[in-house]
Design brief:
The chain is mostly helical. The chain has 12 helices and 2 strands, in the order αββααααααααααα. The protein has a two-stranded antiparallel sheet. The protein is globular.
């Protein structure tokens, strides 16, 4: 019963992820996306898009990373991709949060989740590289669909998007090429992304 109680406590705790709002708007632009929606969306994307990137990867491992990597934001908060000041202590805040949140689990599951979190952060496997590429690709989809709302609000530069997506270019070239042509170029032309 202790094991089940620990798992139930963790399940209740991670419900808080639904209250962590990100800077990207959902496609219709009516509100900002929350972390749980972000994880779900990317997990579906992993099922659909792996054939374009790395068909030999373990999709379940990729999805597992996508589902758990932002749980740390329950304690650490969401760090906006283009907020350089907030990114300075992001790793420390998230490591502390991972220890507490995953520490609610039985030891074997705690270790598994900590390892998945670390694998995502380091990007040392094909699965982690694909997961990280999706984590950067998905906000571009939302930003483009919502009329560039978040890009415009934060005065995001094309060079910043390109820098953030270096791994996407390297590990998911077909997705990057599509995003650049279909999402970024039109919004540069519209003035929603600053072309520097």
């Amino acid at each position: 019963m202790k094991r089940l109680e620990q798992q139930m406590q963790f399940i209740e705790e991670i419900d808080k992820e639904k209250s962590i709002y990100r800077q990207s708007y959902i496609c219709d632009g009516s509100r900002k996306e929350n972390d749980a929606e972000h994880a779900w969306h990317m997990s579906i994307m992993a099922l659909l898009l792996s054939e374009h990137v790395a068909p030999e990867i373990d999709v379940l491992e990729t999805i597992s990373m996508l589902l758990i990597h932002d749980l740390v934001e329950i304690d650490a908060g969401d760090t906006y991709a283009y907020d350089e000041a907030a990114k300075r202590d992001q790793k420390e805040r998230e490591a502390k949060a991972a220890k507490r949140i995953f520490g609610l689990l039985p030891d074997d599951q705690k270790e598994k989740f900590m390892n998945l979190f670390a694998e995502f952060e380091t990007g040392n496997s094909k699965e982690a590289q694909f997961a990280r590429a999706l984590d950067r690709f998905q906000p571009m989809i939302l930003n483009a669909a919502s009329g560039g709302k978040s890009w415009k609000e934060h005065e995001v530069k094309l060079s910043s998007i390109e820098e953030r997506n270096e791994q996407t270019k390297a590990n998911a070239k077909e997705l990057w090429d599509y995003a650049f042509k279909e999402f970024l170029e039109p919004h540069v032309k519209k003035g929603n992304i600053i072309n520097d």
